[in-house]
Specification:
- With 155 residues, the chain is α+β, with helices and mostly antiparallel strands.
- Helix content is 31%, strand content 14%.
- It has a five-stranded mixed sheet.
- Helix 1 packs across helix 3.
- The longest helix is centred in the first third of the chain and has 15 residues.
Amino acid sequence: MTLDKNAIVKALKPYFAVNELVCPHTFNKYGERSWQFLDTNALYGLLLMRVSIFGVPMYVNSYKNGKTQRGLRCNLCQIVKDKTNAGVLYMSQHPFGKSWDFDVQGMTAEQARKKIIENANLFPFNFRLESDVNWVHWDCLDMYDNTAKVYIFKG
């Protein structure tokens, strides 16, 4: 199955502005062109979750609430800088535009994860969920030697 990025972005726009999905550094430099840095599978996964699984608002970045690094993170983002400065290997999928940290209106993170797992068959690719956090972390890392549709990991 080949996914059409332009069609996916068009379908996502009623639900998300691109500044909700990328860090302020990226949006301030690229504006609407920031969509280009987001992985097609990640965008499709976001669309599936918003429309077909939850059917209610999902919140990635919210600048007014100080949440600015929950989608794409660039090298100027504080989380990335903190890890780099501490000498920690940082292989998160956020800098690759392949992951989302989000909240779902009216649901706990655990309820949302459960609902995603129950609907895993909707995704045409394998994906990962982080456990034991009070937000949902979803990513589409194409893992080597993994056949599990849903891979649960601890951060």
